[in-house]
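haha ok so turns out i had the wrong file open the whole time. this is the CORRECT one, sorry everyone. sequence first:
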Amino acid sequence: MMILMIYKTIPVSQSLCKDEPTNQTKSATNLLVRRISTTGLITVGEFKDPESREVFRYLRSDHSLLGGIWIGPSMKSVQKKFSNLNQIQLEKIAIENSESIYSTFIIQEAIRLVKRNQTHSKKQEEEALIMEGNSGLGIGVSAKTLMKHSIKTTIVEIDPTVYKYAREYFGMIQPNGGIYLEDIRVYLNRNLANDESKDRQETVMDKFDYVIHDVFTGGMVPADLFVKSFWIDLKKVLKIDGVLVINFAGLPSSRAGLMVLLTIFDVFSFCRTFSEKDFRDQNPEELEFQNLVFFCKMNEVPEFRPVTKSDVLNSNHKFWILNRLMNHELTEVMSSILLKHQDLKEEMVLKEPKDSIKLKLAQIPSALNHWNVMRELLDEKTWENYY
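then structure:
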């Protein structure tokens, strides 16, 4: 919200309200397109990593990287195999076969590996809801995978430009369950209201087998989507043996982190936690800013089956990550943090939307820390090309 208010006060060229390339200074980044949109300045660019010397394509909202793919290595491989194709055809194939720069999105795909009970028919089509309340769709890594596994996938994304660029520059496909370009709270309220007007037996099949809640941006999360009342509403659209995945980026033992953790676990008691990195032997109080992925069920602790080649659609990179998933588990670490701060539960749990202001204020240090991380990830010339 603070970032959006800043942009409302800055005079912006009319050209930035439509898709346009930019005038650039010399940089390792090649900006492809940009547009001022709902959540800020959305840009697509390509950056040559200084260590690997390989090129990745990224999607950015203001100073947050929403996702990216290693387009360089993929293009080299495709050019060797299909020398008779033109550049447009080569790029399309390269995008389709590019790997994500963030392993977090691949970890989210483990949602399919969580064991389900037999209350649902195997012949029944599985359904997934991916909610992106604040530019969280990213480039659509998880969504594409779910759809390739014949899961009917519904996406709720508040920023239309994020969805547009994901389609045009990252190979995101049309969601087979529908795309709703609106606030997730509007979507939930409308569907819950419709649900209450029908008989329960008529609507049980409309609930989701899988829900992915990924709404991080700018070093902060939209606080309204982390209050207890929201989690309770979300629970209502999840099947009884369904699986919820929550992505949270932050410092677990910080005040903001504790608010998020204590509130989530107050509604979903059966969760397991994983990180992009292996922190198993680290002091919980010394954990750095990181991406956490929670896997939750309503009535039992999630158990995972082994990953297979068909699960990862023959991607060696995805298989390598998911096959080592347990090496990145932080469930015991999270339990230790929560147990240590149980006396703060009454103060920290965000019960109603009005309590979201506490989380907004507590996240300011995290936003500043995230800004510094981004400044190290992309070179100075990239930021000089901001507009």
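The two ends are 20 Å apart (CA to CA).
again sry for the mixup
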